[in-house]
Amino acid sequence: MTRTGTALILGATGGAGYEIARALRARGWQIRALHRRPDAVAALIPDADWVGGDAMVAGDVRMAATNVDLIVHAVNPPGYRNWGQLVLPMIDNTIAAARVNGARIILPGTVYNYGPDAFPLLGEASPQNPTTRKGAIRVELEARLRRASAAGVRALVVRGGDFFGPHMTGNSWFASGLVKPGRPVRSVTYPGRPGVGHAWAYLPDFAEAIACLVDRDADLQPFDTVHFGGHWLADGREIAERTRHVAGVPNAPIRPLPWWLVRVLSPGVRIFRELAEMEYLWKVPVRLDNTKLVRLLGSEPHTPLDVALRATLEGMNCLEAPVPRSQIKDVAAPA
């Protein structure tokens, strides 16, 4: 089969899909993006080939994937809606399209797959015994990729912590929990317990790591998993402290997320029900071991935390009087 150097991005308007498309394009890949209304979003990645279609329609995905070498499966139901009905059929469509075209699938992974027995340090071989519905769906999603690899469909899962970056969507904790998009920072809400560590993945770094791994395809297994360390904060509250500093409001209050209210309202409010299911990930330290990634690449892409936060807040239109760049501190990369 003739290789074309073309990558199909499913979910190109989302945070991960958008950044992965940019990172691949910078390495010379031709980008094709599937969207239900391509004319409305084409300006987002102007040099991409936008095609109309729905990730839930097998024929649309198969047609969009014609002659591609890579399919980035970065599509997720917005606001956690209808995960049980949408997530698995979409990955089945991607697998079928990849099988026809001999393409490798790239899946941005999450820590939802894991239960408390795997914490605090998650390696690629850590047991996946989720205690939540979304976690069970993610485990089955990856299991389908693993089973497909036995039939010749190559897949790579790159797992990171909570995403943040300049092109955010409502599916992220940073954009839907910590700050309010489109408004200057007046306070920061932090969902975790003080003193409990938390891992964050800056999306441009995460995407760069994926693009570098794609370049090392010959070193990957037919089904492979790699963990991205990102920004590990031993006291997770530091993300809130640095956010208010970068926003130029160092004395802005840091408020705890009222989990009790989330639980009370969860039976009748879908988004609260979905958030309540993830509460356990904020009660204990959850860190990703990036030893394998560093072995493959030599190092992990890493933007200093304050620089990453400034770009994120700028992209979300949350800056009014930001800290000058000269005062942005360089935070060391994780070990």
Automatic annotation (TrEMBL):
One of its GO terms (molecular function) is aldehyde dehydrogenase (NAD+) activity. GO terms for cellular component: cytoplasm. Gene3D superfamilies: NAD(P)-binding Rossmann-like Domain (3.40.50.720). Residues 7-219 form the NAD-dependent epimerase/dehydratase domain. It holds the Pfam family Epimerase. SUPFAM superfamilies: NAD(P)-binding Rossmann-fold domains (SSF51735). This is NAD-dependent epimerase/dehydratase. It comes from Hyphomonas johnsonii MHS-2.
